[in-house]
């Protein structure tokens, strides 16, 4: 296979999607919860992010297949769990991208008066633009996400620095927030570090994976940490001594006002839409490659195999696109809600991450790392407890289907 992803291009695939819509949505939420001490919660979250990124990058290096960390899960926990993890990730991506499309379309429509009347049309345009990039192959994906990541990152960094320089006083938090409030905030901010677990789905197209992935992880992690901490610090300082209540309007666009003035909301809309788009490219690209690899191994229908002449797995992408179109239509006619799709996707993403973390306990050495992994597992289990009933129902269905597919004895017993 012609390997086309180097350190820079794989970094482009990581930074934008991992920042995602979280850089727009999460800093205001943290400030609402613990005020000017939000930066403390972000520092703790980013420390957890370092561990999370290291664990899943290390696991990705252990496999040479686009099935990603699922291969390692199978080796360490048993092949049944390999299939289970793959199905969890595929199920998550059946629902999650629809919510991302709605988030991106929301920012775009808010920039133009009356555009919300055509929101579903905007969503379909974004979806098919995303498909066009994916069909162009891995090189195009890397270039597009690199441009989006670099542009949005620079806007946020320059805007934050300019904002801080314009402040009369730059204040640092004094003391720690209450433990209970800090804990609740950390649970929400944990979503800022999700995303590293799908990097392994690109490993077949990475030049010298062992060195390239670790270098790219360090570059991407440094960029993500710097942007999150700087943006949050600038945002909480832009509020001055204002008393924060539930009704206080806090928007990341505030950090851009000193630099862009009245255009700050339009610029932030473009930034947010770009990051959502980068997330779509990475997640869908990773899962379609994983589906094609599983089809090659006989775990999915042969129809989903990728032809050698294809730049990307077209049939796997087609199946996911049809499912996404159905969900978009159902949401448009109010049969389901965006929150419904988010809840289901979150349930499957958490379960997939849990399996990866449990498997990593068997392949990563070091007592400090192992204790950190156990801490992350506990946090994810707590998050999982807040899943919706429909999320739990679909989780049980997918788990039972995976068991039926993976365990011949169980399959034979059901036939008898």
From TrEMBL:
Keywords: Cell membrane, Membrane, Transmembrane, Transmembrane helix. InterPro entries: AA/rel_permease1 (IPR002293), APC_superfamily (IPR050367). It is a multi-pass membrane protein. The chain crosses the membrane at residues 12-33, 39-57, 88-108, 120-138, 145-165, 185-204, 216-235, 255-284, 316-336, 342-360. GO terms for cellular component: plasma membrane. GO terms for molecular function: transmembrane transporter activity. It is found in: Cell membrane. Its main location: membrane. Pfam families: AA_permease_2. This is Putrescine transporter PotE. It comes from Clostridium diolis. The gene is potE.
């Amino acid at each position: 296979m012609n390997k086309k992803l180097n350190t820079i291009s794989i970094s482009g695939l990581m930074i934008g999607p991992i920042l995602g819509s979280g850089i727009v949505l999460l800093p205001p939420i943290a400030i609402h919860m613990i005020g000017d001490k939000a930066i403390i919660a972000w520092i703790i979250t980013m420390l957890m992010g370092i561990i999370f990124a290291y664990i899943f990058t290390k696991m990705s290096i252990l496999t040479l297949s686009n099935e990603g960390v699922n291969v390692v899960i199978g080796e360490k926990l048993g092949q049944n769990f390999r299939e289970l993890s793959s199905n969890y990730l595929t199920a998550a991506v059946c629902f999650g991208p629809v919510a991302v499309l709605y988030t991106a379309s929301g920012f775009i429509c808010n920039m133009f008066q009356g555009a919300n009347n055509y929101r579903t049309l905007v969503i379909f345009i974004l979806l098919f633009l995303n498909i066009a990039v994916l069909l162009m192959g891995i090189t195009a994906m890397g270039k597009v996400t690199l441009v989006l990541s670099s542009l949005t990152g620079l806007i946020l960094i320059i805007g934050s620095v300019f904002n801080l320089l314009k402040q009369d006083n730059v204040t640092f938090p004094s003391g720690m927030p209450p433990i209970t409030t800090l804990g609740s905030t950390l649970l929400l901010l944990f979503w800022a570090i999700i995303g590293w677990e799908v990097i392994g789905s690109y490993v077949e197209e990475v030049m010298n994976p062992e060195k390239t992935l670790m270098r790219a992880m360090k570059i991407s992690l440094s960029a993500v940490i710097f942007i999150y901490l700087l943006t949050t610090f600038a945002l909480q300082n832009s509020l001055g001594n204002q008393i924060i209540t539930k009704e206080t309007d806090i928007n990341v666009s505030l950090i851009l006002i000193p630099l862009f003035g009245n255009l700050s909301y339009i610029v932030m809309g473009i930034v947010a839409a770009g990051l959502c788009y980068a997330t779509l490219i990475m997640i869908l690209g990773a899962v379609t490659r994983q589906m094609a690899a599983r089809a090659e191994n006989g775990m999915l229908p042969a129809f989903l195999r990728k032809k050698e002449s294809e730049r990307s797995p077209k049939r796997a992408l087609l199946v996911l696109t049809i499912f996404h179109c159905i969900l978009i239509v159902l949401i448009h006619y109010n049969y389901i809600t965006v929150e419904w799709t988010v809840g289901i996707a979150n349930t499957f993403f958490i379960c997939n991450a849990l399996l990866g973390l449990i498997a990593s306990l068997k392949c990563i050495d070091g007592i400090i790392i192992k204790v950190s992994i156990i801490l992350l597992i506990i946090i994810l289990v707590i998050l999982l407890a807040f899943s919706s009933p429909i999320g739990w129902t679909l989780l049980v269905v997918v788990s039972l289907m995976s068991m039926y597919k993976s365990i011949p004895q169980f399959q034979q017993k059901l036939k008898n």
